[in-house]
């Protein structure tokens, strides 16, 4: 990797650099600026990839829902069965007497994964949820 590295100069305000250095320190082992900049560049490139509906993505849909709402578990399962090619696995956790947390690992085209998440998170009784995706292409 060292042979393909390119050095470049960036001019930024001192306060911004101070805040950036604090961010680098928060990242733990990777405390040098170069690695933090590479991470941020990759992160932005992945975001761009994810905006393409045909991009292959992996991710998770995490949701909290009302366990006692009649028929809700069945509705959630039916939607997942309609998307067998996107659903990889799921984990179910009983949080308390009335709330459950479900995390579904998903994979597929960005558009299909987002459609699945929209369907699940839009079902009455799902209190909160979020889709988190990453692109499978390396940067």
Describe this entry's structure for a reader.
The chain has 139 residues and is α+β, with helices and mostly antiparallel strands. It has two domains: 11-50; 56-135, Alpha-Beta Plaits (2-Layer Sandwich). It has helices spanning 14-26, 33-50, 72-82, 110-121; strands at 56-66, 87-94, 99-109, 126-135. It starts with 13 loop residues before the first helix and ends with a strand. The mean pLDDT is 90.
User: How large is the share of residues in beta strands?
Assistant: 25-35%
Radius of gyration based on Cα positions? 20 Å
The largest beta-sheet arranges its strands as 2-3-1-4
Low-confidence stretches: none
Number of domain modules: 2
Distance between the termini: 13 Å
Question: Which homologous superfamily in CATH is the superfamily of the largest domain?
Answer: ACT-like. Chain A, domain 2
The total of beta strands comes to: 4
The major β-sheet equals:
4 strands, antiparallel
Please tally the helical runs, counting DSSP H or I stretches of 4 or more residues: 4
Element string (H = helix, E = strand): HHEHEEHE
What structural class is derived from the secondary structure elements?
alpha+beta
pLDDT averaged over residues: 90
- What is the CATH domain class of the largest domain? Alpha Beta
Helix content: 25-40%
What is the CATH architecture annotation of the largest domain? 2-Layer Sandwich
Cα shape: elongated
CATH topology of the largest domain: Alpha-Beta Plaits
